[in-house]
Each structure stands twice: as C-alpha cells, then as structure tokens.
Amino acid sequence: MNYDLNQLSEQQEKTSTYKALGRLLKLIAHERGNLMLAMVAIILNTCVNLFGPFLIGHAIDKYVVTKQFHGLLVFGSILLAMYLLGLVTAYSQTKLMGGVGQRLLFTLRNAIFSKLQELPMAFFNNNKAGDLISRVNNDTDKINQFFSQSLMQFIGSIFTILGAGIFLLSINLKLGAATLVPAVFMLFFTMVLSPWVKRTNAANLKSTGGLSAEIQESLNNFKVVIAFNRRDYFRERFQAVNLDNYKTALRAGLANNLFMPVYTLFANIAQLVVLSYGIYLISTGEFSVGLLVSYLAYATNFYNPLRQLAALWANFQVAMAGWDRISHILTMETNLVELPATKNAAAGSLLEFRNVHFSYDSREILHNINFKMERGKTYALIGPTGGGKTTTASLIARLYDPKEGTVLLDGKDIREYSAEERSRKIGFILQEPFLFSGTIRENILYGNEHLKDYSSEKLEQLIQSTNLGEILSLFEDGLETKVTASGDSISLGQKQLIAFMRAVLRSPEVLILDEATANIDTVTEKLLGDILKQLPETTTQVIIAHRLNTIENADEIFFVNSGEVNRAGSLDDALAMLLKDKRSS
Ligand SMILES: Nc1ncnc2c1ncn2[C@@H]1O[C@H](COP(=O)(O)OP(=O)(O)OP(=O)(O)O)[C@@H](O)[C@H]1O
Predict the structure, then answer these.
(1) Which of the listed residues 3, 125, 356, 390 should we mutate to test ligand 1's pocket, taking the one with most ligand atoms within 8 A of CB?
(2) From 106, 326, 439, 549, which residue has the greatest number of CB atoms within 10 Å?
C-alpha cells in the first residue's frame, strides 16, 4: 500500500467533487434534524426577502399612485412583521449551523486521530508529522468554516435565486428571459473555472502542510541547529517553503476572488437590461412603474445572491480541497492485518524466522532469513552500523511485516495474534526511548494497563520485588519525578532507565533491548544486567549491542549484515566477523 499522502494527492487530484461531497455529507447524516430545522428557517427567511419587493410594488401601484395613504400603514406593519420574522429565522439558522459545523469539526478530528493510531510504522515513515498536524488542525477547520458559515447561505442563496427567477419570469416573460441571459454566462464561467480553483486551493493547503512540517522539523532539532550554529540553514529552508506558501496563497486568493468582480459585471449588465427594456415596455403601455420597481428589486434579489454564491463557491472549493486531504487519511488501511487464528499451534521454538525477506522500499534489507530462538535464552544481534539489527528486531515486534516468508511466535504466524496479545508478549526498549510529559509513574504505567489502579505504595512494592528499586532510587523524587514534554528534562541514559522499568514490569515473554544500555554508566549497566538475570527463566532476551561486553552472557550470537543473519558461535568468532567486515569495507 502506498502510504505517501502527498503522492496520493497527485494521483487522485481528479476526484469528483460531488462524490467527495457525498462522502462528507454521510458524516453529518445524524444531524438530519438540525439540518431540516435550519432549512425551514432559511426557506422562511427567503420567503420574507422575496415577498418584500412584491408587497412594495403592489403598495405603490395600489395606494401611492391612487393616493390612498391609509393602506400604506397596513402594508408597512405587515412588512415590519415580516422583517422581524426574517431576523428570527436568520439567527436560528446561524445558531443551528454553527453547532453542526463545530460538531463536524469535533467528529472529523476524532476520526482522523483514531485513524492515525491504527496506521502502521510505514505510514509514519512516509509522512511528516507537521503535515499531518496541518491536516488535523487546518484542513478540518476549512470544512468547519464552510459548514458553519457558508452552507446555509449557500442554500439560502439558491432558494432566493430560484424564487426571484420565478417572480421575474411570471411578472413578464420577455423581460424575465432577457434579465436571466447574463446568468447563463455566469454559470458557464463558473463551470469552466471551478476545477482550476479547487486545484490552486489544494496546492495551497499542501504547501501549508509543508510549512508546518518544516517548522516541526526545525523545532525538533533545535539542539543540532544551535550546536552547529546553523540557524541560517533552517532560516533559508524556512524562507523557501514560506515563499512557496506565499505564492500558492496568492494564486489561491486570485482564483477565489476572480468570481466576485466577474459576477458583479454580469449583475450590472442585467440591471441595465431591466432598466432599458423595462422603460421601453412602460412607454408601450405593457408595464407599470410599480412593477418596474418590484422588477428591479427582484433582479437585485436574483443577482446579489448569485454574487454571494461566487464567494461561497470559492469557500466550497477550499473545503473540498481540505476534505480530499483528510479523506486520504481516513481511507488508509493498515497493512498489518490480523490473520484468522489457526487451531493447533505447533509447539517448538518461541521465535522463528522462516524464509524472511524484507525491504523498506526497493532495496532489500533482509534476504531469505532463517533462524530460531528458544524460550528462556538470551540472544545477541551484532553487526556493523546499518547492517539490519533494528530491522530484524522490528520484525520480531511486528512493527513491519516481511515482504515474503513468515515470522512465527510460539509456533504461530505472528500475524495471527491480536495487537494486544502481541504487545503483551513482546517488550521492546527502543534505541531512543520516547517519554511522555508527566511523571515517571505515568510513564511506567503507559503500556502497563494492569497496574493502572495500583496505589503508589503497591507500585513501589512491585518495583522492589522485581529488583527495579535500585534504579528508581537513582531518581530524587522516585515515581513522582517530573518528565517534561519529549523528556528533555532528563538525560538519555535516564530515559533508557525509565523505558527499562516500563518494559520489565510488563513481564514480556520476549524482551528486545535495542542498544538499551548505550548511554548508561558501567555501574548502572551492571545493575541492569543483574536485573535481567533475575527475570523469569522463561523470558527470552534479544539484545542488540555494539559494545561486546554487554553480550558476553548471551547463549547465542547472530551476526547481522548485508541482508544476512548468521550464527556467530562464540564471542571471539563474533569479534572476528566484525573485524573482517571492517577490513573488507
Ligand atoms: N524507515 C526506514 N526507511 C528506509 N530505510 C530504512 C529505514 N530504517 C532503516 N533503513 C535502512 O535499513 C538498513 C538497516 O537499518 P537498521 O536500522 O536495521 O540497521 P542497524 O544494524 O540496526 O544499524 P545501527 O547499528 O546503526 O542501529 C539501513 O541501510 C537503513 O538505511
């Protein structure tokens, strides 16, 4: 599956707007009641606006021309009541649709975020966090803006246009037809221009995503930026994407604002037609002054909402471009599907790689790998940098699936385990452990749901009984030690210690340590070694290490390099293999 969202957008640029709209409307299907109420409000509002000019024209011909001014008072009162109804209906529809828009925003953000939680590593390897943030924050808001501010105006405008059109044609067919001719040109102009408007808006949203990704990258790497004094480097990169964003925004602005002046021109031409043709008809006695006044108002009522539609149409195109970007995420599926469980798992090795091939992209990283790991034993993976150790460990933890072949856990294809079962069985301490802002206690509880209701005392007892007490005592405030966002308030070694406690407390059947002690002093490293020795006898350990002293107690050593995983025999053999590799490279 292709997980690159930006590449996908290019391939699917021609998605039909109406299909996309259909899918979006499904998301607010449960708001049917509110939508209907808002619709009633907008229809009432439209009727008020449409009948006003008719009543005024009628009053002029019947009471002003004949000088019966008492009737004007009655009509004035009716008009006032209608305008008040207009106020109430306009307020109601704004309030109702504001709610619908905000709830849609809420639902969309939840849906995208839950989808992001389901997607596999490959998705995150292919997309920048900043771009994803922009989709969750910015693109969803574009849709909210359309629904809460524009949709009802949109529908209201269409009703007003239809109503005014009917009045125009029914008052005088010839004059009505002449008045509507400019509208046909407007329709044609809109149809031709819309796809381009949507494209320019999509390019602008993509560029906003790129801008957000750039900011995120430079903020994440601020230490390197400062240490190398390369602020100018990121400044230049930022300026480049900012400039691109500025240009795409200008283009989108130009596209969005092109409708309005053109529509205004057509509306003015229509007024000219009404005036000149209308005066001609009065001179021939076919038309009255009152009717012409009403007629001018209806022509305005027809063309003003059309002009408003121009602005709303641009908002609609922006919202649809945003929705395209969001729906690409929502339609993504994880490629790590769960296979139906087979009944009889053949008992045997705890872990087995059977004819495994793996590549991230086109370059093969692991080629036809076969090995077994037994329960309760300790295995070491060694090899040169970039040799494929972390990749092998990632396949054991099913962060990825092999392109070919099978990884078996406890005799069963690893794909048959549910994500919960698998993560209960396998503990993984990553090269760069990630901590959440909060306390050590909260970080330890992450992934250890069964300990959630433990009191601090009970948790401390457990920590002592699993021999982790000495590690915890290295932190001044124990379990309550504060960890700030992304764990920058503590050292890398301390992070590894917390990740170590988190993994050991889960009592996994397989514990993978990927360079897990690389940043820890020798005394503490020995302490961790002692704790590992005291893990249940059935725990299988897979240790990835560059420092050979950390693996001297391993039962078996695998040498991972150039797509192969080979048994290294003794520690001396492993060292010889490493040296040979160094010399030949
Ligand atoms: N997400 C990824 N996308 C594309 N290629 C990757 C990715 N992760 C790793 N690789 C490539 O796969 C190869 C093996 O990487 P891996 O991290 O497994 O090596 P390693 O032996 O663990 O290295 P180290 O000792 O430096 O941690 C490397 O050439 C690396 O460039």
Answers:
(1) 390
(2) 326
